[in-house]
Specification:
By secondary structure, the protein is an alpha/beta fold. It has helices at 11-17, 43-51, 65-78, 89-98, 115-127, 140-146, 169-179, 191-194, 210-214, 228-242, 248-259, 261-280, 299-305, 320-330, 360-366, 382-396; strands at 82-86, 106-110, 131-135, 151-157, 182-186, 204-208, 222-226, 285-289, 312-317, 335-336, 346-348, 372-376.
Amino acid sequence: MTNDTKRTWKPATTLVHGGTLRSEFGETSEAIFLTQGFVYDTAEAAEARFKGDEPGFVYSRYANPTNDMFEKRMCQLEGAEDARATASGMAAVAAALLCSVKAGDHVVAARALFGSCRWIVETLMPKYGIESTLVDGTKMEEWERAIRTNTKLFFLESPTNPTLEVIDIAAVAKLANAIGARVVVDNVFATPLQQKPLELGAHIVVYSATKHIDGQGRCLGGVVLSDKKWIDENLHDYFRHTGPSLSPFNAWTLLKGLETLPLRVRQQTESASRIADFLAERSAISRVVYPGRKDHPQADIIARQMKGGSTLICLDLKGGKKAAFDFVNALEIIKISNNLGDSKSLITHPATTTHKNLTDEARAELGITGGTVRLSVGLEDGDDLIEDIERALAKAA
């Protein structure tokens, strides 16, 4: 088998060829190794494999050739030394956080998090003696004030879900390094093409590969990327013994998604930028947040740390929940779904879906109102999407 992991390619080439393993059959497309286990020539070979003295695969819960290709390709794209693929994005988040702290430690997290991420920080971790503090991630003074003698981890999303705030990753990493803490960044909204957290000083990056990486609504998946030392000493045993492993079939599907990731993200971002400008001029809309517009609250940070805009738009409709529901119900092309990063344009009402378990006060802190909707722009023609939105706004009015 061959492995081109040491070559230096541009992202588009890496996403087609990076990490490829070919069997003796010389297949063009990556092979799917749908196997639970592996056989050994001798008992001595099995012993050596289990001891780590001989390279190779032991059990697909630990590692699998197809999963290995996906992990290596993601490492090349992200600039990471090592990675582990997981069964879902939340499995990746949980692994990254739980493998970074222990009972008695303290976590500081940006309060603008996906609902399930916030549940891990606020509800799950305290059950195991891990303290947490939520801060306004856009205010560096709040990160600094939250630091305690036992602070070991900072956690953030940027851009955030769903209001698309952008956090200064380099500044947070500088604070963490000063106290010997680690920074975990959920980079799913930016994609690895638009933002490189490791280059900005973050220590661990997580993705829900379900989103842009698959990008076609087919399967679940996630990945955790970091330096090899942290993977070996913190994540490796957790991964082996708790079993959040990715299905090899899903890994193969994600490899196919990576091949077209630059094309899809570029088209989606271009359409999203046009739609955001269109929405900003509509009288029925009270607020449009898009990382790429000059009126974004963190436009200066975006210019420093992002290579492009986003495929996501956050908007508020005047008239609250009723206006938002009337609008989304009137859409024809854009479908109602809580997913994002898909080839199909999708829209959701966070207050009643992804962030419904937060208190009214917590949603207000995040800027989520009854009129807030999150639009994930797909691959449809931009003019058709604008016409669909214009028609739905007129009906909602």
